[in-house]
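quick one, two chains, predict together pls
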Amino acid sequence: MPTDIVVDAMGSDKAPEPEVRGAVLAARQYDVRVHLVGPEDRLRPILRQALRGQRLPVFIVPASEWITMDDKAAQAVRSKRDSTMRVGLKMVREGRAAGFFTGGNTGAAMATAKMVLGMLSGVDRPALATILPTIKGVPSLLLDVGANVDCDPDNLVQFAVMGYMYAKNVLKIHNPKVGLLSIGEEDLKGNSLTRDTLPLLRALTSINFTGNVEGRDLFNGHTDVAVCDGFVGNVALKSIEGTAQLLSASLRESLKSTVTSQVGALLSRKAFAEFKKRLDYSEYGGAVLLGVRGVCIIGHGSSNEKAIMNGIRVAAEFAQAEVNSGIESSLRSS
Amino acid sequence: MPTDIVVDAMGSDKAPEPEVRGAVLAARQYDVRVHLVGPEDRLRPILRQALRGQRLPVFIVPASEWITMDDKAAQAVRSKRDSTMRVGLKMVREGRAAGFFTGGNTGAAMATAKMVLGMLSGVDRPALATILPTIKGVPSLLLDVGANVDCDPDNLVQFAVMGYMYAKNVLKIHNPKVGLLSIGEEDLKGNSLTRDTLPLLRALTSINFTGNVEGRDLFNGHTDVAVCDGFVGNVALKSIEGTAQLLSASLRESLKSTVTSQVGALLSRKAFAEFKKRLDYSEYGGAVLLGVRGVCIIGHGSSNEKAIMNGIRVAAEFAQAEVNSGIESSLRSS
């Protein structure tokens, strides 16, 4: 049976084109029915063109308002009562869709999801989880990357359980290793938050907790899930993105500097294309909001149609894996 | 007049060879006199060989003990009373040397420096500052990267003053821009520590504070100095290192994957060499411990002779710039 996924058609920087085309791509490739939320008069012609006469399960759900990247999240969530985000997430709450995807304002998406969907039982705060590539080829999961900046040990314990369940059931990693992001492997290394959290995590029997991990372990396969507060995770994520941008720019410049290199660059073009693909966040479809009562995926504002298609696929995989019931029963037993 | 720099000859992973050869390189290139601290019987033959009969101002200062990477910092600092670090830093305290360099145990070096040198007046805690490459070519400074994990707003204010003075006087950046590392540019973005710190930094007249900055600003030239607590900075630094390792490995693998790419790789070898050089921390000679009453540079354990040579150069530049008096007078007036 196809999975119903609802998409905020007005989320990304270039909305609604990438959303509509991504929805059509997803409906063509995966066993999904896609509901595009937005102004019908703008979506209809783009959808008609994208479908090229093909019959595919892509539908339009009208909404008259949308939240922009410039909107202040808290204010927009309150004032725009017919926003694409709110209309879309209500469909998830009412069981008319199994998951929601947006490429829009992250703060607004998190706030709307929290308000409309509510929290899973046993979870105090949601966490935004992002997938990182590793040297070993399997992805790793970093959370929280910005949903909650000031966390207490209980929040981090809940994040650990949520990350473990997601890595196991959606990323299909067998008994994923969960680490606490710190500044050294020894138990005594860390700040007051991580030192207070460590014994709680060690006492958990429902996950495979391995101890403290460091920033570099995000990429070398030593850990499958790294847990931290949203401030630390967000700083780390943006530092990672900055490093990748610097390295790409440096490499490009170095390659330009000699004639031989220019020839070399031409010949190794295929290799670079593959290299870029590895770093391409759009392959993973965006960040996952864990802890809310439903499925909510938040993509980059720069999402193109392929990223939207992947986001829809990830939302469907998340919904089918029934991660949320696993999180609730794990937290109940801990 | 040459600057006297004292070097822990037993610090790096492959000590004492890189230290001795690096000292000779530095004495040959720069206006410095280098004092190598360590067991005379081990250092003497290596020094004789490295000098190849040349007369250079490189001297041996005997010390019978040294702290290893496996030593627990606090314990080693207490128990090894004739350690190379302690003997070397005492020479700085007594005015017999203008600066100290070690490629050894960072925790032990920081603790010994704090104990032997004491703190600058107006500084409560030292900060470890590291230099990062940027897209624009000028370096940026990130501090603290691990000296103090739990900080209060006053600590961060002091770090900001120290970073500004170092960037201005040693990195020679004109009126360097100082930012507070956070998760968004707006004043309200951040955690409780950064939100409490921001107004204090805005009130400082002795530095060029520009507001919140993000992880990616470390590399794009939007800021010259980024200030954070040691936990956040250490996680960011290790995430950056992990990203660079991942990207290098991915690129190598991508290049191996096709015959054309192999040819391309051969031809663009020179470009890669330059690319790697850009990312090479050893160019910058290590991290700088700011806030202690003296000059202390802490290099990577993997430092080779070139990194040691650069570390000695940086120590001499730091000593000549008289950063510390600037920090004290700035903090007095704020």
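The CA atoms of residues 71 and 105 of chain B lie 8 Å apart.
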